[in-house]
Specification:
heterodimer, A: 506 residues, alpha+beta, Beta-Lactamase, 5-stranded antiparallel β-sheet, 12 helices, disordered C terminus, B: mainly alpha, two-stranded antiparallel sheet, 2 strands, 68% helix, 3% strand, disordered N terminus, binds adenosine-5'-triphosphate, binds magnesium ion
């Protein structure tokens, strides 16, 4: 009977089993290395598990074959027979394990992919966060730079302003104030004001401040309000004030910004200009009238004198005509004054020593003042330069002022006369002050008007100051008054000093 | 059929003409495990393909290994099948010696038995492919690390 040798099968089995063990162990090794290199990757864990299961299978099956083969060769088939079922059971188990792992592999891989995706997203997000952070940092730096540049710019604007710029809190206390503000209010440094004083403290009139505060509370702003402020040394400063709430809807809380423009000088100038304007037109009218009256007056005077010559002294007729002549002379004097005020009268200009003029007048008036109980204090600058002008007219100005001063003083008082030279402006200054009744503020503008007087009829014509004004202006100077009711009046005259002589003296 | 299977727990055992009295559920479990193994290999091979893993050399080798294991399982299954149909007295010669033979002509299952018992010719290449695949993946990982520094 024909038979096939089993040797090829046995040999393949033998060699194959050995190879399977070796190769599966190598698989385990590489899978292990792989997993160690990438512990987080679940794929390699799977491969390791797969390899391990295969290796277990190979070993159990291979060892079964090898040992079985060897035992058979050794004639110990019985032992082998007892071991066989175990080897077979392990093989079965390993098939199931490998299969199960494999089936799970798909699921695991899906989860793994999601984990990897999440990780990538996370990394992307975190790098995005880092980038944003860096961007933010540089953004903040740039912003800070811009801010400080802007701060410098606005500081310069704030400090450089020639107007008073300030910030107050909602109680009116100064929070900040620029240099111009400090200077205008007569202080040395902002620290003396900031946090110490409030707006109310620098207002002259509390009423003004209350009105301002009310308007700020109700409207949140004020615009172009004229306010009188008081500087540290007591000077009054007229300012044009604009204020607004820091935040548009913070009428009540948060404080205010404000800008104040010092308009004291401008206001004074305006007033002077107005007065000059008015007096100039009055002067024109007066000059016209005076001129027209002068001729008939001359004729009246001429005929009166003619008649007088034909009358005997002592008769009634003579006395009557004399009265006419006297009143006509009076009229002529007034007309002459009017013409002087209108600067229509001619002036003979010579070099005038102002100090000397004042001394002459004082000598003349000394007795009168003394008997009226008026003390005269004269402080004349010995270095005073001369002025160019009409001595008589200048004397007349001083005379008018001194007489007014005397008339203003009831009872005893004091009259001050002072001369000074302001080298810078090239002006000499004559100040005549008294401790008289003073001039109310609302009349201060009118006293220079012709025929303005507060004195009873016959005592004053109201031409004294207008004539003086006309004369001083004719000499290129100015006359100003400063008065306080009950305390006294100060008249300040400025005249241009004679240039070449002052240069020689200097 | 079950009585035929009864005789076969392990094919190699039968080679030595040892009379075993295997439990039938042992063989059935073993055969089912082969089928299960085969199925999962098919699933993995398909899955590697669908998910484009095979574009990588390592995974391609592992896929080939899967297919070889699939074949092997089928072969092993058939081998057990054939062995279960062989009568016990068909093997002649000294048990445990290389001169042992199987008588032909007594059963149609002899030839399939012999052929399918050369299963190592498939499973050794299969595990070799697996090894090469894993190694390739490992080398790639090493390269990545090397490139990383
Ligand atoms: N020193 C002074 N103190 C107070 N009031 C003054 C002073 N000087 C002038 N006045 C006021 O100014 C008015 C005008 O003065 P002004 O010298 O022009 O006229 P008058 O003195 O009234 O008359 P006249 O000088 O022609 O005799 C005065 O009526 C007086 O009310
Ligand atoms: Mg007078």
């Amino acid at each position: 009977m024909e038979a096939y040798p089993l040797a090829p099968v046995v040999l393949t089995d033998f060699i194959g089993s050995a190879l399977m063990i070796v190769l599966s162990c190598a698989c385990v090794r590489y899978a292990f290395l792989l997993r160690r290199a990438r512990p987080a990757n679940v794929l390699w864990t799977y491969l390791l598990a797969f390899s391990l299961a295969l290796a277990a299978f190979s070993v159990s099956r291979g060892v079964g074959h090898l040992v079985g083969q060897l035992l058979s060769f050794a004639g110990k088939g019985d032992v082998w027979k007892a071991l066989l079922p175990y080897s077979g059971a392990v093989n079965t188990l390993m098939f199931v394990v490998v299969g199960s792992i494999t089936l799970f592999f798909q699921r695991v891989q899906i989860i793994n992919r999601e984990i990897l995706n999440d990780k990538r997203d996370l990394e992307k997000a975190s790098s995005e966060v880092i980038r944003l952070n860096r961007d933010l940092q540089s953004l903040v730096e740039a912003r800070t730079r811009q801010l400080s540049a802007s701060e410098v710019r606005y500081r310069a604007l704030f400090e450089g302003s020639i107007d008073v710029v300030f910030i107050v809190d909602d109680t009116g206390r100064f929070e900040d104030l620029n240099q111009a503000g400090v200077r205008t209010l007569g202080y040395e440094s902002p620290e003396e004001l900031i946090g110490v004083l409030s707006l109310k403290d620098v207002f002259v009139k509390e009423r003004d401040y209350d009105a301002l505060a009310y308007q700020l509370r109700t409207h949140g702003f004020v615009r172009d309000r004229e306010c009188l402020l008081m500087s540290r040394n007591g000077d009054e400063i007229l300012v044009l004030l604009g204020m607004s709430a820091k935040a548009p809807d913070a009428h009540v809380k948060g404080g205010y910004h404000g800008i104040a423009k010092d308009i004291t000088a401008r206001k004074r100038m305006e007033r002077q200009l107005q007065r000059a304007d008015r007096l100039a037109s009055l002067g024109q009218i007066s000059a016209g009238i005076a001129h027209e009256i002068n001729n008939p007056l001359g004729i009246i005077l001429g005929y009166a004198q003619l008649i007088m010559r034909g009358c005997d002294k002592g008769t009634q007729g003579y006395e009557d005509v004399r009265t006419i002549e006297r009143q006509a002379q009076n009229c002529r004097r007034i007309v002459g004054d009017l013409l002087k005020f209108a600067r229509a009268a001619d002036t003979r200009k010579t070099v005038v020593n102002v100090n000397q003029c004042l001394r002459d007048l004082l000598a003349l008036l000394a007795r009168q003042f003394e008997s009226a109980g008026i003390m005269v204090e004269a402080r004349l600058d010995p270095e005073l330069p001369a002025v160019v002008g009409d001595t008589d007219k200048i004397k007349q100005v001083f005379m008018n002022l001194l007489v007014n001063a005397k008339q203003a003083i009831t009872g005893s008082g004091r009259i001050g006369i002072e001369t000074a030279h302001d080298v810078e402006s090239g002006q000499i200054c004559v100040i005549i002050s008294d401790t008289g009744v003073g001039i109310p503020e609302d009349l201060a503008d009118k006293v220079f008007d012709p025929f303005f007087t507060t004195k009873p009829v016959g005592e004053g014509t109201g031409l004294g100051l207008s004539v003086s004004y006309g004369i001083i202006h004719d000499h290129g100077g100015t006359i100003e008054l400063n008065s306080e009711v009950g305390k006294g009046t100060v008249f300040t005259i400025q005249l241009p000093a004679r240039v070449d002589e002052s240069a020689k003296n200097g | 059929m079950p009585p035929a299977i009864l005789g076969v727990l392990l094919a190699p055992g039968r080679v030595w003409a040892l009379q075993v009295h295997p439990e039938p559920e042992g063989l059935i479990a073993h055969q089912l495990a082969h089928l299960f193994f085969a199925t999962t290999m098919a699933v993995l091979a398909y899955w590697l393909h669908v998910n484009r893993f095979v574009r990588e050399r390592g995974w391609r080798l592992i896929q080939i290994s899967c297919l070889l294991f699939l074949l092997w399982n089928i072969g092993a299954f058939a081998g057990h099948w054939a062995a279960a149909h062989l009568p016990d007295d068909i093997f002649v010669g000294e048990p445990g010696s290389l001169s042992r033979k199987v008588l032909s002509g007594q059963s149609v299952w002899v030839l399939p038995y012999l052929i399918f018992h050369l299963d190592h010719l498939i499973c050794v290449p299969a595990i070799l492919c697996l090894l090469l695949g894993i190694r390739s993946l490992y080398v790639k990982v090493l390269d990545e690390d090397g490139a990383g520094f």
